Amino acid sequence: xxxxxxxxxxxxxxxxxxxxxxxxxxxxxxxxxxxxxxxxxxxxxxxxxxxxxxxxxxxxxxxxxxxxxxxxxxxxxxxxxxxxxxxxxxxxxxxxxxxxxxxxxxxxxxxxxxxxxxxxxxxxxxxxxxxxxxxxxxxxxxxxxxxxxxxxxxxxxxxxxxxxxxxxxxxxxxxxxxxxxxxxxx
Length: 186
Fold this sequence. Notes:
Number of strands: 12
Largest sheet: 7 strands, mixed
Strand content: 35-45%
Oligomer: single chain
Shape: elongated
Mean pLDDT: 86
Radius of gyration: 22 Å
Order of helices and strands: HHEEEEEEEEEEEE
Structural class: mainly beta
Low-confidence stretches: none
């Protein structure tokens, strides 16, 4: 038994080290953004750099821009958002807008020119604009999260506004004309 004891202790230590190393989170956990969740649909969410609220959402078969000859056909989700800067107008704009549905992530389209991502935000005054997401034909239902950030890339150790969107009951229209972002009058 004396000869087996060091081997058993060594095996136990090796097993313990394996269990510990598997359960240690990777670097992505330490660099992940802080998700600032909304309390429900239609409620404003304020983070360090952005205040936003989803006003409306609908599916459409075609997106157009009235000022341009551009149009896009397919399965589009168009979300109308009111956004403002909470403290400063320096670099205050939505640089990245993504829609997360389950484990799938879709970025707002850059093809239409009237996207809210092009608008500069003001402190205390909402800018209302639209975000268009071109989705695969099978995406028509489910729970989604609209994630907005003022960082161009996925932020590292910064906050992201998360607005819940239920896709199940959204209306579908034939065409939506994307309007240019505008300041909301009180």
